Amino acid sequence: MEIEKERVYVNPTELENLSDAPFSGDEENGGSEERKTEINGNWIPATSITEAKINAKAKRRLRKNSSRDSGRGDSVSDNGETLKTGVVPTSPKGKLLDRRSRSGKGRGLPKKGGAGGKGVWGTPGQVYDVEEVDIKDPNYDDDQENCVYETVVLPLDERAFEKTLTPIIQEYFEHGDTNEVSEMLKDLNLGEMKYSVPVLAVSLALEGKASHREMTSKLISDLCGTVVSKTDVEKSFDRLLKELPELVLDSPRAPQLVGQFIARAVGDGILSSTYIDGYKGTVDCIQARAALDRATVLLSMTKGGKRIDNVWGSGGGQQSVKHLVKEIDMLLKEYLLSGDVLEAERCLQELEVPHFHHELVYEAVVMVLESTGEKTFKMILDLLKSLWRSSVITMDQMKRGYERVYCEIPDINLDVPHSYSVLERFVEECFQAGIISKPLRDLCPTRGRKRFVSEGDGGRLKLESY
């Protein structure tokens, strides 16, 4: 019994190994008689062995939970009981998405600090620096550090040139902004095709209106020095003179028009004044000789090569209203002198202002009111009848012209006393000729006739009308 009372010191490692004993604590305590176990020649009570097993199991559980369940809010008490302060994920999917180590090692932090996994480019907030070139790289080249990369635009060939520039020039005829055309041409690599820009512009203008030819002359003048040089301009006109036999097939007036382009270019200072002299005696083509003769005549009319502003006429909506009124007034005066209705119609169309034709109607009717003879009355009636039948003047423009006369007839009557009676007669003749409609005729203002009674004529009414 002395052995039972003796205190025994047991190695902890030996106590941990006791957990593998074939008997559990319950089986050892199941008997009525206390059992003893000999360790290293010493007999130890069974209760001490049971307590050692429980402590060893608690330590193992503590180590396991500290590594796997750290950060989940779980803790272990001194008695080995687990205290849950957080919610442990029970979903299988949650366990699969858990990025903590499953090997039971580490502190339970995410792999690679949260920068690992598919589709992850590093930790949140990480800024990548410029990667330096490794000199020891087998593919390293000394010249790659000083290399400058630029966008290379291939030069246009003849087919691509015409396909690209034709829409640009046609769009220019609509907006008339030479700066926009210049910026668009600078973005293209024209290469050796620069001289073809004036050639293409003139070729398109030959088939257009007079205003298009005027805009083409301005375009060539503005592009000279920025996109094309004076040498390119001379080269372009040389090509135009050579291609005149082909241009005549589409534009019969091509020789005269090309001659006007040459004269305008000389007047603008983008073509040398000696350009025409260089062709004297060396031109065999009839069309080219006619173009040079036309340019020579136009330059001789301008004193010393002065800028030719009106070589293409003065038409187009870009002209000022004051200038258009002056041109229409001159047109009517020339018609009254010549009596040529077709020439007056052609001049009106060359002005290219169909929205301003009401001015011609207004000026023509006012000339009738201010005239004293029947000649002007009849000639203006014939002119309006011809313009109406050829549809040069539309119904809307004709109506606006007459309405303007109706509104201003009181002021006109101050200078022309019999204007009311003349206007009424002219409107009636226009209605009989089918120029105006009946509602427009009925709008014609009339001045009421005043009759006076004389005191000594027996009450007879006088027929004077004012």
Q: Please, could you describe this protein's structure?
A:
A hairpin with a 2-residue loop joins strand 1 and strand 2. The termini are far apart. The longest helix is centred in the N-terminal third of the chain and has 23 residues. Helices cover 52% and strands 3% of the residues. With 466 residues, the protein is mainly alpha-helical. Strands 1-2 form a two-stranded antiparallel ribbon. It has a two-stranded antiparallel ribbon with strand order 3-4.
Q: In percent terms, what proportion of residues is strand?
A: under 5%
User: What is the topology, as strand order, of the major beta sheet?
Assistant: 1-2
Integer average pLDDT: 78
Largest sheet: 2 strands, antiparallel
Give helix % range. 40-55%
What general outline do the C-alpha atoms trace?
elongated
Q: Cα distance, first to last residue?
A: 165 Å
- The number of distinct β-strands equals 4
Total of helices: 20
User: What would you report as the Rg, rounded to the nearest angstrom?
Assistant: 54 Å
The residue ranges in which pLDDT falls below 50 over 5 or more consecutive positions are 1-34, 85-89
The arrangement of helices and strands along the chain is HHHEEHEEHHHHHHHHHHHHHHHH
Estimated structural class: mainly alpha
